[in-house]
Amino acid sequence: MVAEDPARRNTGPALELERVVKSFGPVVALRSGSLSLHRNSIHALIGENGAGKSTMVKIMAGLYRRDAGEFRLHGESVDFASTAQSKNSGIAVIYQEPTLFPDLSITENIFMGRQPVSRFGRIDRKAMRVEVEQIFARLGVGLDPDRLTEGLSIADQQIIEIAKAISLDASVLIMDEPTAALSGVEVERLFTVARSLRDEGRAVMFISHRFDEVFALCDTVTVMRDGAYIATQQIADTTVDELVRQMVGRDVTELFPKQETAVGEELLRVDGLTSPGTFHDISFSVRAGEIVALAGLVGAGRSEVVRAVFGVDGYASGAVTMGGQTVPQKKPTAAMRAGLALVPEDRRKQGLIVDATVGGNITSAIRRRLAAFGLITTGIENRAARGWAAKLEVKSHALDTVAGTLSGGNQQKVVLAKWLATNPKVLIVDEPTRGIDVGTKAAVHALLSELAGEGLGIVMISSELPEVLGMADRVLVMHEGRITAEIDRADATSENVMHAATHASEQHS
Ligand SMILES: Nc1ncnc2c1ncn2[C@@H]1O[C@H](COP(=O)(O)OP(=O)(O)OP(=O)(O)O)[C@@H](O)[C@H]1O
Ligand SMILES: [Mg+2]
Q1: Chain segment 121-137, per-residue pLDDT in tens
Q2: Which domains does the chain show, CATH number per domain?
Q3: 338, 329, 289: which is closest to 311 by C-alpha?
Q4: What span, in angstroms and rounded, lies between the C-alpha atoms of 448 and 470?
Q5: 62 CB less than 6 Å from ligand 1?
Q6: DSSP 3-state of 499
Q7: Ligand nearest 95 Cα, by number?
Q8: Which one of 193, 215, 449, 457 is CB 3.0 to 4.6 Å from 426, fit for a cystine?
């Protein structure tokens, strides 16, 4: 299948960046970015939030032009002025959340802008469909090429982007945190596809904050720190500890430091919450000082439950009470007044005001309260914002930075800071460390533990078992919209949590 491209026959790297520099006004995003990607290889690029990984990707994608340094493709110097130039040169970038056209079919999306024409001058739909079928068969993907892309999962949308890359015969595939929003099975399927791309002679690059993924998939790893290249190693020759040291520049102390805290009075009570087709008969309570984890597979209904508890979505029956008082349905402001806060899963879409500053985002949820006391002064706002930004290690040069220009992980931290600043009684966090680097992850865990110690009740949704087992006092496991197990910290193991996450409990099956 690989085209007869003379450039491919040379033995050097497929793609190289050498000491690449990129600034945005006063912000130096890349001081010295270097990387060489080779055919038949899956290369990990890792580094803390804001290290410059996505900036490297955007230069390869033709979204940004470098200020200085070398960029070579198959040995030839290139300087892309557009994403089209990058694509046409055989580079395909798969983003965390692809942007397909929802009202076009899978096939039409794959052939967007380059439909083959039949001998009669018509668009040759049959040829397109056959090609897509062949690619899907090769990738072992069971999608119908004729279906519209509307409503497809993120995982399927990524596969379509990959199919498009194959159909364009891309020689370099770049994936920027593709697994962040995928379930375990979907990650496995993506890895199988990535391996077959590698075996076909392509160069694959993979960005992730999860070391288990890096070690399972990649053969080579490059570490970046503060916009600069640190080291490249063979995966077989390195360890997680060594990579963490290179990323952070120091030793990172243990993750999941949940401290023992005295559990106090009941704060939040959820009784028989039901939303037909989404979740059924959900009951649980959260007490002061307690961290309750909601575990389960992606799609089990965990996010839907907490959205209903916080009043973002409604429910058909059941009740939510805070300190004995009913929290009305579908009124997030009332829920906030009652002392609830929800840090949503998709922070970029649901939590961040991209055009506002970092400081403005952090204080946006408390502004009403400050104003009620006639206290709305920039000084107070800035002090509140700076405190939380520092606690969460938001790497921004100033609180007046526009939030949309922060790195993905730093945007996550800003939204977390915003909700913590509301000083809630019960904090609900949906995937608190997704997209967050290893050093800050430890900081987020320490912070959650500290907040519980101060008497906050915490509900934590997490798809990472070690995080669940390390942080939770109690684990509620959901499967297909129902709670299938409630397990105390002392009894929770990855086996019993996984079992409950994948099986209906007896009384419901
Ligand atoms: N368009 C922009 N304008 C201003 N600053 C930017 C812009 N794009 C990136 N930056 C800055 O460049 C730095 C590197 O960001 P980048 O997105 O490359 O980090 P990253 O390594 O991908 O981090 P993450 O793991 O959080 O995704 C950050 O400090 C970011 O704020
Ligand atoms: Mg990034």
Answers
A1: 677 788 889 999 999 98
A2: 13-99+152-158+170-248 (3.40.50.300), 101-150 (no CATH), 266-508 (3.40.50.300)
A3: 329
A4: 12
A5: no
A6: helix
A7: 2
A8: 457
